[in-house]
From TrEMBL:
UniProt cross-references to SUPFAM superfamilies, sorted A to Z: Protein kinase-like (PK-like)
This protein's name: FAM69 N-terminal domain-containing protein
Family: Belongs to the DIPK family.
Lineage of producing organism: Eukaryota, Metazoa, Cnidaria, Anthozoa, Hexacorallia
Any one of the GO CC terms: endoplasmic reticulum membrane
Species in which this protein is naturally found: Pocillopora meandrina
Parts of the chain that traverse the membrane: 12-32
UniProt KW keywords: Disulfide bond, Endoplasmic reticulum, Membrane, Signal-anchor, Transmembrane, Transmembrane helix
Domain FAM69 N-terminal as annotated: residue spans: 7-162
Major site of localization recorded for this protein: endoplasmic reticulum
Cellular compartment(s): Endoplasmic reticulum membrane
Keyword Endoplasmic reticulum: yes
Classification via InterPro entries: FAM69_kinase_dom, FAM69_N, Kinase-like_dom_sf
Protein's membrane topology: Single-pass type II membrane protein
Length: 411
């Protein structure tokens, strides 16, 4: 039998090996964390101090006073005091949110991170802004501005019947300026609005302002805009240390969610698909309307089809855009443009039944309601047999609405 004696490394070589090992581990750690840092920064809650939120407001008013920022709420915020800021709400690093009031309306005053690629208005209009700044009084500049606003809105939403819906390019500008009358605009007004509409949430909120289930917009100053304040549906659900909202209140919210799913099938922009359906992205307004909050994740069918049509795919998982799901054609290695899910099904699955293991809005119902609700809710939330035919959507909608309405009357 042979015995092999382990050869000992000299102490110096041991030290070199250990040092190299530490360096390799350090480099590996840096690579891993560099991939994760952006996700962590995005996901975690930031404090208002970290975001320097209040400094942003001070600068906003300073820029307005100096004529560098415009908007239809700047005077109310910075001069008259009709827009009162109360609290800063901690949020993700993509958004700064304040609560406040404007003319007796409870509002949130918010801004989102500036997109990476934004053209300044001077470049778009191919002009140099001098001390004698162009305004709406400069007819050619104003006409070019109106045209570029219309063109941007149309292309941003992939909605090429915009003129049929609105009537004229000028009316698109009037919609974006709503609820204030459109007067003569300063250069600061025009450039601020141009930067604001690079964020498509503001565009959608304004174009869909007549819809019941869209929160009201009260105006803007610079990159901040004021929106109707609501109570999110997170406050309606069960948590281990909190009692749920009364059953009747939850029934009313559920019924209005059904109406929301119905309203979203026919809108001025066509059918809308909400791709991030969760309790925190919906809320109840003072007048009891349920409204959609995360408008960034809501797309018209044409826009959604463009997102889903990825260059290549190898599996169905690569064809999901959050809750908006397609399938991979493995023969052509392309995602189908056909959207498999629908708003009603995801609302049932992720809000009415449960969300990430948390009991949903209609969970733990009174005993007399459970037997009637359970079968239709399970049918509604099922991921099987997607996509639904229009007849199935209507059948489940009517059945669920009937059960909820009867339960509401009995309470």
């Amino acid at each position: 039998m042979l015995f092999f004696r382990r050869r000992k490394l000299p102490r110096g070589r041991k030290l070199v090996c250990c040092t190299l090992l530490v360096i390799v581990i350090f480099i590996f750690y840096q690579i891993v964390t560099s991939f994760n840092d952006e996700d962590v920064e995005f996901d975690r809650q930031w404090t208002c101090e970290e975001l320097k939120a209040k400094d942003r407001l001070v600068k906003l008013c300073k820029d307005f006073t100096n004529g560098n920022t415009g908007g239809n709420l700047c005077r109310d915020l910075c001069t008259s005091g009709e827009l009162v800021i109360q609290d800063c709400l901690a949020h993700k690093n993509t958004t700064i949110v304040f609560s406040g009031t404007w003319r007796k309306n409870d509002i949130v005053f918010k801004t989102k991170r500036r997109p990476h690629h934004v053209e300044n208005l001077e470049d778009v209009l191919s002009i140099g802004v001098s001390d004698d700044e162009p305004t709406a009084g400069d007819e050619q500049v104003y006409k070019n501005f109106v045209f570029h606003v219309f063109d941007h809105v149309q292309n941003e939403l992939s909605f090429f019947r915009l003129k049929d819906m609105i009537g004229s390019e000028q009316q698109v500008l009037e919609l974006l300026w709503h609820p204030h009358p459109l007067g003569e605009l300063t250069w600061a007004d025009m450039s601020s609005l141009w930067l604001l509409i690079q964020r498509d949430e503001f565009i959608k909120l304004q174009l869909l302002k007549e819809m019941k289930h869209i929160p009201r917009v009260y105006g803007f100053c610079g990159s901040f805009y004021a929106v109707e304040k609501v109570e999110t549906l997170e406050g309606f659900s069960f948590t281990p240390f909190k009692r749920p909202m009364p059953w009747k209140k939850r029934l009313n919210a559920a019924l209005d969610l059904l109406d929301l799913s119905k309203e979203f099938t026919e809108t001025p922009l066509g059918q809308l698909h909400h791709c991030d359906i969760q309790p925190g992205n919906f809320g109840v307004a003072k007048d009891k309307r349920v409204v959609a909050l995360d408008i960034d994740s809501m797309f018209a069918t044409k826009q959604m089809e463009d997102f889903l049509e990825q260059p290549t795919c190898e599996s169905d998982a690569q064809c999901d855009f959050f809750d908006c799901v397609s399938a991979c054609n493995t023969t052509e290695n392309k995602c189908s443009r056909k959207i498999l899910t629908n708003n009603l099904q995801i609302i049932c699955r992720d809000i009415l039944l449960s969300y990430w293991g948390q009991p949903g809005l209609l969970q733990r119902a009174p005993i007399h309601a459970q037997n009637k609700l359970s079968p239709v809710l399970s049918d509604c939330a099922s991921d099987k047999m997607l996509p639904w035919k229009p007849g199935k959507i209507e059948r489940i909608y009517r059945k669920l609405k009937t059960v909820l309405s009867e339960e509401l009357v009995s309470n």
